[in-house]
């Protein structure tokens, strides 16, 4: 009886064990596979994350053809949180790609901003434009890859021709 009384007193002063869901978001459990975070400084631009991503939520765009410089773009609203990109990343252990234990907040009046989310989402202000801008980026990224491939091909051909001329 005394024990029950003590427990009741404890419960009166302790925090509730229940959560306010559905009126507040439920907290993610430990180990939850959430949003993908990127560190450009550690990236070797091998494209493995892009190639393995099932919904195509990662896209690299070549932003400078001569140097081959690429930019990482991630669409957190397309991501299915499978973690395949992190598993495929050769620099993941060093922290190049990591999976946060929290989900991406729902799209509201504004779009989430964080340098760790790559270029795409940080350049968008209107949430209604995410889908349209992503489609545009997909086309741009594919075109930039083709241009880079053509540039490299032309460079190789020029080098071969120069070599042949030198040996004449
Ligand atoms: S977690 Fe899965 S869906 Fe999300 S970016 Fe990585 S591979 Fe793509
Ligand atoms: S797999 Fe890792 S190292 Fe390779 S491009 Fe993606 S983030 Fe960069």
Gist of the model:
This protein has 5 helices and 4 strands, in the order H-E-H-E-E-H-E-H-H. The protein has 168 residues and is α+β, with helices and mostly antiparallel strands. It has a single domain, classed as Alpha-Beta Plaits (2-Layer Sandwich).
The string of secondary-structure elements, in order, is HEHEEHEHH
Percent helix among the residues?
Answer: 25-40%
- In total, the number of strands is 4
- Catalogue the unreliable spans: none
Termini Cα gap: 105 Å
Write the CATH fold name.
Answer: Alpha-Beta Plaits
Q: What is the name of the CATH class?
A: Alpha Beta
Give me the number of helical elements: 5
Strand residue percentage: 5-15%
Strand order of the largest sheet: 1-4
Would you identify the CATH architecture?
2-Layer Sandwich
Question: How many domain units?
Answer: 1
Sheet with the most strands, sense and barrel status: 2 strands, antiparallel
Bulk shape:
elongated
Radius of gyration: 24 Å
Look at the helices and sheets and give the structural class: alpha+beta
Bound molecules: iron/sulfur cluster
What is the arithmetic mean of pLDDT? Answer: 92
GO molecular function: 4 iron, 4 sulfur cluster binding; metal ion binding; oxidoreductase activity, acting on NAD(P)H
Keywords: 4Fe-4S, Coiled coil, Iron, Iron-sulfur, Metal-binding, Oxidoreductase, Repeat
EC number: 1.6.5.3, 1.6.99.3
Coiled coil: 134-161
């Amino acid at each position: 009886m005394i024990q029950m009384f003590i427990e009741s007193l404890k419960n009166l002063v302790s925090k509730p064990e229940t959560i306010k869901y559905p009126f507040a978001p439920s907290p993610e459990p430990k180990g939850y596979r959430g949003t993908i975070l990127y560190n450009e400084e550690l990236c070797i631009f091998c494209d493995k994350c892009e190639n393995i991503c099932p919904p195509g939520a990662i896209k690299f765009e070549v932003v400078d053809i001569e140097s081959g410089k690429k930019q990482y773009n991630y669409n957190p609203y397309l991501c299915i949180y499978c973690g395949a990109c992190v598993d495929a990343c050769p620099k993941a252990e060093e922290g190049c790609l990591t999976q946060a234990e929290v989900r991406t907040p729902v799209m509201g009046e504004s779009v989430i901003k964080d340098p760790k989310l790559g270029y795409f989402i940080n350049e968008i202000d209107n949430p209604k434009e995410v889908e349209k801008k992503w489609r545009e980026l997909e086309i741009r990224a594919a075109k930039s890859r083709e241009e880079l491939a053509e540039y490299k091909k032309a460079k190789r051909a020029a080098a071969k021709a120069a070599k042949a001329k030198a040996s004449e």
